[in-house]
Structure formats: structure tokens, C-alpha cells
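testing teh design pipeline on a random one, pls ignore if ur not involved
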């Protein structure tokens, strides 16, 4: 009798191991398909989003720079704290400034335009001077005055 009991216990253990016994409830959620879907969506998102390039188009000089140390001609335009324009130290109106820039643009070797705005001048006046220089075709424009902003 003990031998039969021993054999039946062994047989029951084998059936439970093989899955022939009572089914066990699975408590774990299979996350493998979820992870696969998320990875595919991530790859598709990366591929479809366009690359954002923040570029500024510049016209860089082409060729070899000149070897001579010629000091270029320069014209200085100042804007004071009251937004008054000065051409080479002489107060001018906007119309006179535009005429001076037009005559400067017609020269074969354009001088450099050094624009020095005061830190308290109106931005609209500064922007207007820049737009005049662009409209007249001046290509050598420099904004001078960063030394005013040092503490």
C-alpha cells in the first residue's frame, strides 16, 4: 500500500509539472509586446520629425585676403541718448544721412560704416539707420559700442 501511495504522489507531481493538473492563474502582465510597440513608435517619431537648423546665411568673403596693411576708410555715424544722428561728428537729419549714404554707396571702394548707438537711444532710430544702409547697398557696416555695456 505504501508503494502505491508513493507512486501516486510521484505521478501527481509529474502531472502538475507537465501542466496536466489544475491550471494556475498567471498574475504577471506580459509587457514585451508593449515595449516593442513603443520602440517602433519612438523610431517612427524620430524619423518623421524634421531636423531644426537655426542657420544665419552670411556672405563670407571668397579668396585670399590682401597682404597689405592698408587702413580702410571709415565713416562714423553716432546716435546719442536723445536719438540725434551724427555723421563724422556733425549733427544731420535723416534725409541728409540718406543722401550721404547714397553718395558713399556709389564709390568704387566703399568705406566702412561704423555705427555707434548710445545705449539709451531709441531702437527704432538704430533700426532705421541699418535699413537705410541696407537699402542703399552698403556692405561694410559695423556696430561699435559694446564697451558701453561693461559694468
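output:
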Amino acid at each position: 500500500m505504501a508503494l502505491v501511495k508513493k507512486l501516486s504522489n510521484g505521478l501527481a507531481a509529474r502531472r502538475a509539472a507537465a501542466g496536466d493538473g489544475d491550471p494556475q492563474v498567471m498574475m504577471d502582465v506580459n509587457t514585451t509586446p508593449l515595449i516593442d510597440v513603443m520602440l517602433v513608435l519612438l523610431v517612427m517619431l524620430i524619423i518623421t520629425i524634421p531636423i531644426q537648423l537655426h542657420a544665419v546665411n552670411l556672405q563670407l568673403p571668397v579668396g585670399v585676403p590682401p597682404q597689405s596693411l592698408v587702413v580702410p576708410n571709415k565713416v562714423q555715424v553716432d546716435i546719442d541718448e536723445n536719438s540725434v544722428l551724427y555723421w563724422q561728428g556733425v549733427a544731420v537729419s535723416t534725409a541728409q544721412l540718406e543722401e550721404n549714404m547714397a553718395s558713399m554707396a556709389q564709390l568704387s571702394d566703399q568705406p566702412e560704416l561704423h555705427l555707434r548707438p548710445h545705449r539709451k537711444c531709441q531702437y527704432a532710430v538704430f533700426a532705421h539707420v541699418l535699413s537705410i544702409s541696407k537699402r542703399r547697398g552698403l556692405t561694410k557696416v559695423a556696430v561699435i559700442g559694446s564697451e558701453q555695456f561693461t559694468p
